[in-house]
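Re: beginner question about structure tokens

> Can someone show what the tokenized structure looks like for a real chain? I only ever see the sequence side.

Sure, here's an example I had lying around. Input first:
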Amino acid sequence: MEFNSKNLERTSRLVYYAISLILCVFLILLSNQFIGDLDTASARPKAESFLNERAVASLTARQSSLEAAVQALRDKNALLERTMLTAQQNYTDEKQSFENWVKTRKTLGSPNKDREVVSRATRLDDFYKVQQAWRGQMATQQAAVEANERQQAQVQQQRDQENALANEKYAVALKRYDLGVFLIRLLFVGPVLGLGIFFFIRYRRHKFWPLYLGFTLFSLYAFFFGLVPYLPSYGGYVRSAVGVALSVGLGYYAIKTIRAYLDRKQQELKASSQERAQNVQLEVAEKALENHYCPSCGKDFILKKWEFPLPANAKEANQLVTDFCRHCGLELFSNCHSCGGKNFSHMPFCATCGAKLSAALPQRASEVAT
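And the corresponding structure tokens:
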């Protein structure tokens, strides 16, 4: 009695699924450790390793030298600028003094001052020449700074070219590394996925189906989380091709399975009701009785009141259920040979007296009894 209770059946299913999930989790943990060790078999390339170290070192030294030269020229320019400002200020002061002196001379009108005018003019011209000389030196220094800056730009351009070349080599090596990682994972995940699909197709009704289901779930995890993220893209072609292949393969299998099931059901319905009754499994019969559908064609066997008007003296419960399926003709309810009580024909024992319904299910009755 306890074996046939619904609580035990539900508990058993929960236990079975728990076994599957626990096995799946531990297989995932084990595979992560194994794949992690596989990934360490080859080192991931680094961008720095593809640089031309000698060329980059030479360019770096030259750039440092140019920066030091530019900085020295700029410091010298700053000193020259301060000196030139001093010379300019001296020239301005001397010019102001000369202009004031000329105004005084014009006022006094002393002709003996002509020599002093020439002297002062000569001195003012000397200050102007000094100022122009400093300006020339500053222009020369600024030209040198600009020349060094142009050389710096050329050196930086060469360094950028070296970096671009190293990045190209790094990209090629990285693609090769990713492809290697993918192939290593494929060697591990491919057989696991194939075995998981085989277990699901072949052993999903096996008595140890929870173990096979756990391995199948693990294989799906290994594929979608351990392999798919490492598919080399190459512009998305590989991933799209894999998606198309999986869609076609799974779609073909699903369509083929559904069509085979429908054809099998059609062939079963062509057989006699006695032959179909012998092929009804006990589990299917229990679900059919619980959900009131025919175990052969799957159609509902309970009639609605408007489908079958009740006579005034008939019991409603009996008249709303037919003895035979109105869709495929399978016998659904029959009288017990011992007590005459009405029973679902595909159950092993009479619900009234407990006698075996051996006439319809001799084999299933013996299986349940054992």
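Each token stands for a local structural state, so reading them left to right follows the chain. Confidence is low (pLDDT under 50) at residues 359-370.
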